[in-house]
Amino acid sequence: MKQIILSLLLFLALPAFVAAQPGAIGNTKTDKKLTAKLEKALEGFNGDVGVYVRNLKTNRSAAVHADSIFPTASMIKVPILCGLFNKIHQGDIRFDQELIYRDSLKYDNGIVGSFRDSTKIALPKIVHLMISISDNTGSLWLQAMAGGGAAINEWLSNNGFAITRVNSRTPGRKEGQAKYGWGQTSPREMAELVAMIRAGKAIDPIVSARMYRYLGMQFWDGEALSQIPPYISTAAKNGAVNQSRSEVVVVHAPHGEYVFCITTKNQKDESWQRQNEGYSVIRKVSAIIWEHFEPKNKWTPAAGSDKYWF
């Protein structure tokens, strides 16, 4: 009888768990004006798209399909970062240790995958390559060091994230991998994960600060970040596969920090040009959010030219 009652209580609690995210549980109010702007901006998109925005100062939010499941693509490297630093915090891994690259680790021809066998490299440099340029071989190496996808997923679950999961090279996640690829998330969850790091609540304040510094070192700045003045501090991670484009960003805006995540899937446009519809909608949404929160701080990206964007 006790087991039945416990199961019933868990079942009844599940919807609240799925909707509630760290840092924003029951505290947000809807920003109706921003929501309307975003809904209009997303009209006619040839695929599925979701957006979540929260002003970290006022706790007002806007959401469009924010709890739908989307591929993470390379945004999965944020959970990998958390899983790795959790191991470091527990003493299982030394942050300053030297690693030895082996050819068996190679996934693609990125920077790490181009190393010669037996190359020595410090762990922090692999972390930097994973976050700043999104190196895939280095990221899979760190995923394994973090205990694999299962350990990272356990950390996510323990911290209130019900949707965000590592799928690739993770037991029991074949169905998720077939549908979403390396990882899966929702706009709300990915935004709130980065907001948790910003707030110093991921693992502990010192660890969060170290992770947040890495998120502030982005090489890929041509989409969401291109719509934010270069003198404004940001922390971000983006991702892309053929039918999906995504980005999560914290913006240290003058009138209050905000976080947002935009994700797409099932895109008809699978091109890899700057004009790809997914990239274009990310830039469009980023500009709308910036102008909504900073109406007197207008800025024209790239002086109206695509000359310096690739």
Describe the structure.
By secondary structure, the chain is of the alpha+beta class. The protein has one domain (28-299): 3-Layer(aba) Sandwich (Beta-lactamase), CATH 3.40.710.10. Helices cover 39% and strands 17% of the residues. The strands form 3 sheets. The chain has a 6-stranded mixed β-sheet, sandwiched between helices. This is beta-lactamase. Its EC number is 3.5.2.6. Keywords: Hydrolase, Signal. It catalyses: a beta-lactam + H2O = a substituted beta-amino acid.
- The CATH homology group name: DD-peptidase/beta-lactamase superfamily
Q: Specify the helix fraction band.
A: 25-40%
Strand residues, percent: 15-25%
| Largest sheet, strands/sense/barrel | 6 strands, mixed
**What is the helix/strand order?**
HEHEEEHEEHHHEHEHHEEEH
Q: What is the annotated CATH architecture?
A: 3-Layer(aba) Sandwich
Q: How many structurally independent domains? A: 1
What is the strand tally? 11
Count up the helices.
10
What is the class in the CATH system?
Alpha Beta
Shape: globular
Low-pLDDT ranges: 1-20
**What structural category characterises the helix and strand content?**
alpha+beta
Mean pLDDT: 92
Largest sheet, order of strands side by side? 1-3-2-11-10-9
Distance between the termini: 63 Å
Rg over alpha carbons: 19 Å
Using the coordinates shown, work out and report the CATH topology. Beta-lactamase
